[in-house]
Amino acid sequence: MRLTKLRETIKKEEVDALLIGQPQNRRYLSGFTGSAGWLLITAERSVLATDFRYYEQVGRQSPDWELAKITAKFTDLLPDLLAALGVRRLGFESEHLTVAQLEAFREAAAKVEWQPLKQTVERLRMIKDEAEIEALRRSAALNDEAFAHLLSVIEPGMTERAVAWEIESYLRTHGASKVSFDPIVAAGPNGALPHARPGDRVIRAGEPIVIDMGCVLGGYCSDMTRTICLGKPKAKYLEIWNLVLRAQQTALEGIHAGMEGVEADALARQVIEEAGYGDKFGHSLGHGVGLSVHEGPRASKLSEDTLQAGMSLTVEPGIYLPGEFGVRIEDLVIIGEEEVENLTHSPKEPVVGR
Predict the structure, then answer these.
(1) Same domain membership, residue 194 and residue 112
(2) Engineering a disulfide at 222: which of 74, 143, 206, 278 sits with its beta carbon 3.0 to 4.6 angstroms away?
(3) 188-218 tens-digit pLDDT
(4) Cβ atoms 326, 208 nearer than 8 A
């Protein structure tokens, strides 16, 4: 089905073949998880070129693909391979192929016309099939488990770095192949940095902590943020926390298929703007999650995407007060025709025990 849809692009773009090298795109189309390889796809043939390290792996993971063995440089193999496939006009991933690679490929296959294409596979990846949705459910469930574990051990006196390691070690020892990004643990004023890095700051009782975490399970990512406080918080934190929660709930209740990404973003943004904190919500509402933790569609003020059933999306409004603290609450959802399926089930509580 995926190759059938991609071959429609081959016909539409009037190219003889597509060259795919971006790792997640390569895996999506072929199932191949090796770190090096190129796909060449024509209207009738599917070829996977890789080196000796992965010959057997291709046979296991991509049995329906023809293996083209790279024994030296890919540029040595490329001209004869394109000639054998009858390729005169070749589409390539213009957002992923480097200038140096393109120059080398053009020199090696000088008789071929190279046609730049954008988002060719990424557009297909936006809409998840049922197997992908189930993979996202499992990844999100493990993320929930890790957060539940964290709530049982986190306490004042721990450093941000120690909390981040508690998250990562749990995920890795309970089935995740890796974290989908380095966990964000940002206490106190560090929480005003949307993408803060955990450091040696000691977490104090009564200060907000932004925790953004995710894992990769079965190749698919998860992504979640919770903001908590250990002990008695200040009234301003509770005010901001509840405002962010209200903005998120408004978006979760209003997002549906057929809505523009700009409109989805506006659902949460309007709530925050009306409360006077619009300039403190400086990032987008959300993004797709799949084989990559950040992929299409986008829900932002600049989005050009239309949300469709089967797409995944994070819903993550936030408010950041420099020198004080930040609050972000994020769930991962699947868009339905009339409502969303929320894959994130971790509790949303501004204050936790211990």
Answers:
(1) no
(2) 143
(3) 999 999 999 999 999 999 999 999 999 999 9
(4) yes
Distance between the two ends of the chain, CA-based, in angstroms?
51
Q: Which tokens hold the place of 23?
A: 């790792």
Indicate which CATH number applies to the domain containing 89. Answer: 3.40.350.10
Residues 109 and 211 grouped into a single domain: no
Count how many Cα atoms sit within 13 Å of the Cα of residue 337 in the half-sphere of its side chain. 0
Domain co-membership, 310 together with 174: yes
Query: Which two structure tokens, joined as six digits, stand for 123?
Result: 């557009």
| 246 Cβ contact partners less than 8 Å away, ≥ 6 residues apart | 271
- Rounded (to 5) percent helix, strand, coil in the chain: 40, 25, 35
How many domains would you assign to the chain?
A: 2
Residue 214 · residue 188 · CB < 8 Å:
no
Residue 73: count other Cβ atoms within 10 Å of its Cβ: 11
The answer to the question of residue 348 being in a domain is: no
Considering the domain architecture, whether residues 276 and 309 belong to the same structural domain is answered as: yes
> Is residue 176 situated within a structural domain?
yes
Sign of the dihedral through C-alpha 312, 318, 322, 324: negative
pLDDT tens digits, 299-341: 999 999 999 999 999 999 999 999 999 999 999 999 999 999 9
Tell me the C-alpha distance between 129 and 334, whole Å: 11
Q: Residue 214: helix, strand or coil by DSSP?
A: coil
Burial of 321: CB neighbours in 10 Å, binned 0-12, 13-18, 19+? middle
Find out whether 157 and 167 touch, Cβ atoms under 8 Å: no
| 100-110 burial: b if 16+ Cβ within 10 Å, else e | eeeeebeebbe
CA dist 197 and 249 (Å) reads 27
Residues with Cβ < 8 Å from 308, sequence gap 6 or more?
A: 126, 127, 257, 258, 297, 335
- The verdict on 91 and 197 lying in the same domain is no
CA dihedral 257, 258, 261, 267 (to 10 degrees): -70
Strand partners, 313: 333
pTM of the model: 0.96
Using the 3D structure, point to which of 105, 125, 145 is the last residue of a domain.
Answer: 125
Question: For residues 224 and 230, what is the distance between their CA atoms, to the nearest angstrom?
Answer: 19
Q: Amino acid letter at 96?
A: H
